[in-house]
Amino acid sequence: MMTLKMPISKKSTKRCPLVPTVVVGLLLVLGTGAAAQDAASNNGAQANADSLRSQTSPGPTKSPKGAMLRSLALPGWGQFYNGQWFKALIVVGAQSALVGYAVHYNNKSRIFPEGSSGREDSLDRRNGMFWLMALTKLLSMVDAYVDAHLYDFDAGPDLALQLGTIPSHGQTVNGGPLLGVSLSANF
Fold it and tell me: What pLDDT score was predicted for residue 150?
């Protein structure tokens, strides 16, 4: 009977704890940052404007393709173009941090001798940073594209998300009020 032996890699299975944090942080910021910026950028006159008037005289629009290409060229440029300053700073910061970590792990890999597990671990982490940079670039391009499409979207008081207590009508949880989320849309 013939047995086939496969060499077992002695690569380290340790992963960088920063990777999940960066990915989750980017998803949260890019996914939820628009609501805060829309509220901050709308002034009172725009919030009270009649929706029919905004349909007859459209305001300025942004090119989705232009925003996406700007975001491809420089980190955060597409977000700056769309007026999303906070998101742009987050994208620039994330890309800068990932470049810094990639350089750090590349320099760290040079300390170890060729073929050692420390060198392989450092190179794996460096390559992981490159993948995260690509993911960040892709997410920022998609975000810039979608924000440009929704640039003139009216998110006035008719469409609101409210967090708070729900009228309990005698129902309580452990003696306190019920908490919940309410989404209302007026047509």
Answer: 87
Of 109, 127, 126, 106, nearest in space to 118 by CA? 109
Instruction: Report d(CA 98, CA 133) in Å as an integer.
Output: 6
Report which residue type is found at 115. G
Q: 169's torsion region: left (phi>0), alpha (psi -120 to 50) or beta?
A: left
Backbone angles phi, psi at 177, to 5 degrees: -70, 160
Give residue for tokens 């939820």. Answer: 32
CA–CA separation, 15 and 169 (whole Å):
50
Positive or negative: CA dihedral 36, 37, 40, 46: negative
Are the CB atoms for 166 and 182 separated by under 8 Å? Answer: yes
Digit-coded pLDDT (tens) for 22-60: 555 655 555 544 444 444 444 444 444 444 444 544 567
- 75 neighbors 175 (Cβ within 8 angstroms): no
pTM greater than 0.85 (yes/no):
no
Which residues on adjacent β-strands are paired with residue 162?
182
Higher pLDDT among residues 43 and 74, named by residue? 74
What is the spatial distance between Cα 143 and Cα 64, in angstroms, rounded to a whole number?
Answer: 10
